[in-house]
Amino acid sequence: MTEIKENNMPQAIEQFILYWGDMGGQWGVNRSVAQIHALLYLATKPMNAEEITERLGIARSNVSNSLKELVSWKLIRRVPISGDRREHFEAETDVMEMAMRIAQGRKEREIDPAAMALKECVAQAQGDNKIDPIALERLQAMEVFVVQGSKWYEQMLSIPKGQLATLMKMGDKVIGLLKFAGGKKAK
């Protein structure tokens, strides 16, 4: 974990920022981007790039690029401060909204292109008699899975956040309901 420059930051805040940065790295997000997001998420007032640079000890150019990325993900927004010409930023603090924005961004950047590529592969394989039927079947199964996952995601977006949170809290009760309705336990 990278050390944070400012030593008077409460330990719990520093630990969260460092852990969020490490988790971001495991999810394919630049560590600095994740750390800046964590800092802004916990900040009680909007911050400018210089304040972020000072707090985290990250190069100013890295902070600028990271802020642009976070704005593009819609995880932070620019906030005008009266009498200050610098740009200030604040994070989305609704955890459910934040998760939905991250999921939407990942779907657009990862799932949608994968679905298009699989569709092309299946179409090519269907017209090629050199493709083993088992390979074609597996390609089709992968395409169906990705399309179903994408449709499920779209359905989840249509559920109001409060109801989605309730659904998530139900956990095992949903599984029990599926068993009751005739579903089989996943292996």
Short summary of the structure?
The chain has 187 residues and is mostly helical.
Summary keywords:
3-stranded antiparallel β-sheet; 187 residues; mainly alpha
Task: Describe the model.
The chain starts with 10 loop residues before the first helix and ends in a 7-residue tail after the last helix. It has 187 residues and is mainly alpha-helical. The protein is extended, with a radius of gyration of 22 Å. The protein has 2 domains: 81 residues, Arc Repressor Mutant, subunit A (Orthogonal Bundle); 86 residues, no CATH class. It has 8 helices and 3 strands; from the N terminus they run H-H-E-H-H-E-E-H-H-H-H. A hairpin with a 2-residue loop joins strand 2 and strand 3. The mean pLDDT is 91.
Please describe the topology of this protein.
Elements: H1 11-26, H2 31-42, E1 47-48, H3 49-56, H4 60-72, E2 76-81, E3 84-91, H5 95-126, H6 133-157, H7 161-170, H8 172-180
Antiparallel strand pairs: 1-3, 2-3
Helix pairs in contact: 1-2, 2-4, 3-4, 5-6
Order of helices and strands: HHEHHEEHHHH
Describe the strand arrangement of the main beta sheet, using strand numbers. Answer: 1-3-2
The total count of helices amounts to 8
Largest sheet: 3 strands, antiparallel
**Separation, N- and C-terminal Cα atoms:** 37 Å
Radius of gyration, taken over Cα atoms and rounded to an integer in Å:
22 Å
User: Quick check: average pLDDT?
Assistant: 91
Strand % is 5-15%
What is the SS-derived class? mainly alpha
Residue share in helices?
55-70%
Q: What's the count of strands? A: 3
Unreliable stretches (pLDDT < 50, length at least 5) are none
Shape: extended
The tally of domains stands at 2
